[in-house]
């Protein structure tokens, strides 16, 4: 197996390809990418045989912006016989993976694949049984073992491979299934909820998304993001010239400021979260978040960078550099991650967490 498949949002294959090529080159792993536009995945084929497995272990999945999933695979299996699709799949896996903890039969996230997905659901049951009989899969699901992926790109036509459970997306097809809360004022609410799932480990939610915390939401109207914060019993300063949903104002947890998000200053010194969904130039938004973190006005930030331009990968890289450099120049130690979430369209979401600052005089860390 010498190929790495990356799932992505259809239309972002080029960005996903540019990113994996850069990250692989940094590890001195070279290869070429197969890109079919709007297919919802790309394939990076390594020149050297064992390099794909190294790539899968060495590139932190959390560092990939445009990939929803990352797995190792071999040649495409074509024309699987309808009377026995399982034997060739087992053949591909034998010797490659042993005792995997789970199996996912998946498709690209495209409209054309919707029909195929129904087949995948049905096919999973006999496939799982056969994989267990061959000891390729453990008798019970095991979260710390590799995951087998069978990725159907057309009827009878699939890639077969595996991902490492400590370096993959835990979600089927790399997509967290979230239900739209009907009482939320906008669908954007799902972006922030997904960001919490992706960026904050669930065992840290109580500490980092806990009740009573203070948050500032820049570009808050009508309140989809504020809703997520209010739902977690936080107190929110919502900044936007537009109206906020009355249902949120009625909670008593929201103070609405009709102000410019670029000029707004936190009215208190214990704001933990800054979230920002303003439709603005990404560089302005990134700089604003950097300023907040450097000044110690918040401890963590989640910002959305809109990407209406052509060179989207380059734009994101520049903005992440801007953030990194701003923190570094001001001796602020923190971490930055960016992801194109499932609920992001022409945009990516960035999470920045400030650990400590070496510069005295800033607000104390809590
Ligand atoms: C995509 S909407 C935000 C949706 C919101 N996150 C939600 O979930 O309902 C972008 C908002 O940014 C606001 N906005 C744009 N520029 C702004 C600025 N300079 N200051 C404050 N708000 C701004 C707009 O008024 C608009 O309501």
Automatic annotation (TrEMBL):
GO process terms (BP): methylation; rRNA processing
One Pfam family recorded for the sequence: RLMM_N
Keywords noted in UniProt: Cytoplasm, Methyltransferase, rRNA processing, S-adenosyl-L-methionine, Transferase
SUPFAM superfamilies assigned: S-adenosyl-L-methionine-dependent methyltransferases
Catalysis performed (reactions): cytidine(2498) in 23S rRNA + S-adenosyl-L-methionine = 2'-O-methylcytidine(2498) in 23S rRNA + S-adenosyl-L-homocysteine + H(+)
Subcellular location: Cytoplasm
Binding residue positions for S-adenosyl-L-methionine: 188, 221-224, 240, 260, 277
Ribosomal RNA methyltransferase FtsJ domain segment(s): 186-279
The RlmM ferredoxin-like domain, residue ranges: 1-71
EC number: 2.1.1.186
Start and end residues of each Ribosomal RNA large subunit methyltransferase M THUMP-like domain: 84-164
GO molecular function: S-adenosylmethionine-dependent methyltransferase activity
Active site residues of this protein: 306 (proton acceptor)
Top-rank taxon: Bacteria
Broadest EC class assigned to this enzyme: transferase
Entry GO CC: cytoplasm
NCBIfam families: PRK11760.1
Family: Belongs to the class I-like SAM-binding methyltransferase superfamily. RNA methyltransferase RlmE family. RlmM subfamily.
Role, per record: Catalyzes the 2'-O-methylation at nucleotide C2498 in 23S rRNA.
Quaternary structure (record): Monomer.
Name used for this protein in its record: Ribosomal RNA large subunit methyltransferase M
Species name: Sodalis ligni
Gene name of the record: rlmM
């Amino acid at each position: 197996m010498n190929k790495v498949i990356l799932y992505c949002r259809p239309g972002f294959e080029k960005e996903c390809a540019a990113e994996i090529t850069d990250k692989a080159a940094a590890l001195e792993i070279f290869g070429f990418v197969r890109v079919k536009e709007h297919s919802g995945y790309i394939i990076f084929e390594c020149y050297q045989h064992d390099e794909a497995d190294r790539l899968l272990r060495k590139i932190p999945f959390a560092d990939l912006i445009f990939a929803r999933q990352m797995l190792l695979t071999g040649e495409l299996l074509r024309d699987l016989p309808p009377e026995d699709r399982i034997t060739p799949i087992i053949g591909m896996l034998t010797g490659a993976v042993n005792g995997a903890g789970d199996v996912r039969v998946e498709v690209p996230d495209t409209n054309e694949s919707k029909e195929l997905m129904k087949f995948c659901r049905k096919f999973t049951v006999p496939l799982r049984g056969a994989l267990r009989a061959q000891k390729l899969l453990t008798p019970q699901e095991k979260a710390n073992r590799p995951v087998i992926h069978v990725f159907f790109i057309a009827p009878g036509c699939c890639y077969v491979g595996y991902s490492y459970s400590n370096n993959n997306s835990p979600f089927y097809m790399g997509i967290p299934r979230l239900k739209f809360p009907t009482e939320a004022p906008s669908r954007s609410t799902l972006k922030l909820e997904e960001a919490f799932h992706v960026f904050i480990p669930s065992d840290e939610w109580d500490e980092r998304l806990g009740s009573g915390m203070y948050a500032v939401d820049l570009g808050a109207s009508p309140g989809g993001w504020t809703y997520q914060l209010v739902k977690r019993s936080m107190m929110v300063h919502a900044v936007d010239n537009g109206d906020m949903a009355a249902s949120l104002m009625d909670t008593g947890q929201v103070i609405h400021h009709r102000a410019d998000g670029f000029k707004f200053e936190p009215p208190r010194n214990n704001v933990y979260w800054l979230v920002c969904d303003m439709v603005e130039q990404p560089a302005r938004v990134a700089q604003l978040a950097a300023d907040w973190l450097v000044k110690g006005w918040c401890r963590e930030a989640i910002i959305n960078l809109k990407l209406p331009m052509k060179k989207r990968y380059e734009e994101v890289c520049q903005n992440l550099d801007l953030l990194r450099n701003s923190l570094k120049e001001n001796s602020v130690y923190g971490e930055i991650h960016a992801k194109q979430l499932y609920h992001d369209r022409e945009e990516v979401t960035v999470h920045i967490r400030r650990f400590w600052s070496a510069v005295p005089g800033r607000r104390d860390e809590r």
